[in-house]
Amino acid sequence: MGTTTIVDMNNISFKDLTTFKTGGNIKYYFEVPSEKDLVEKITFAKKNNLPIFIIGGGSDILVSDKDFDGVVVKYTGKTITEKDGILMAEAGLEWDKVVEYAVNRDLQGIECLSAIPGTVGAAPIQNIGAYGQELKNTFVELVAYDIENEKFVTFLNKDCKFTYRDSIFKTDQYWQKFVIVRITLKLSPHEKPMVKYDSLKKYLTSSVDHTLEEVREAVIKVREEKLENWLNMPNAGSYFKNPIIGFNKKTEIEKIFPDVMIYPFEKYYKIPAGWLIEKTGWKGKSLGPVKVSDKHALILTNPKGKGKTEDILKLADAIKTDVQKMFGIVLETEVQIIDF
Ligand code: NAP
Fold first, then answer.
1. Chain mean pLDDT for the chain
2. What is the distance in A from the centroid of ligand 1 to the CA of 96?
3. How far apart, in whole angstroms, are the C-alpha atoms of residue 225 and residue 57?
4. Contact present, 14 and 26 (Cβ < 8 Å)
């Protein structure tokens, strides 16, 4: 799997490896294309008593501005195979390449997850989701390297404890303890695509019989228009989670804002965090060198990569305080904050 070259780089900082374009310098950075190379570099770190940080596309993390006196490892194996709808992809592949590959082979199940930034390895950590589709719906299993016990292990779907944009890999016990090297999905050959959200329907020309390709194109278009592309506007997607509220809070908000869109979520309700932020007036506003996106209030941006992690944290705190004052709702961070 992959080639056998280990890319070994000096003078790299988290700024170069994250889509927020912030973070401190890194002592050792290795890109490893195979399981053998991965084990070699993890062993090096352990033998030298150096802390280890595993990185993927760096698209869902906000890393401390402090220097990291340890080893950062990126798994870069990119093999992808499929037979009878069972798709296997290595962790280093860009997630969107998997969606493209599946749609080209007429395999249904992940078309709404088009254009989500990040790697295959990061997808289960966050249980990526969009327009009503979630990774957990098609996920079969993953293989990961257990850093502490020095062996490869398999996690089945149920072992990953997937919930809304969450998995076991975000808990303290599992976070940064396993290096995901490949995942397996079960997709549905020749099935019709799934279109649930009105925000997506608006981008489809006809109302019935869409092809997977049409849905993929619509998702790419809506994301281009409504979200920020980190290549020209550094960001890490949704900064906060959509809060889950009870019936009383829902009624209270609907009385004051009859236009609010609140969605049922299990036994509770989900209110878009972007809408709450917009109501506080933060959309498009700057604080020092960082800014809330003009397009989508849930996205905090680092225009021109001039801001630091510290600046983004200050902006997030100011937003949280205002949302809490106005609605009595405490926003939770969706992006992983990394401090050393
Ligand atoms: P949108 O489609 O305008 O909807 C706004 C919010 O309302 C979303 O958070 C969505 O919840 C919820 N919603 C809309 N229609 C719904 C329905 N029929 N049933 C239940 N909930 C509904 O949202 P958007 O901000 O442009 O994003 C589109 C999709 O991409 C969303 O699914 C969003 O979660 C996803 N996304 C994820 C990230 C990330 O970084 N994780 C970034 C951008 C967008 P859900 O969030 O539960 O879908």
1. 95
2. 18
3. 22
4. yes
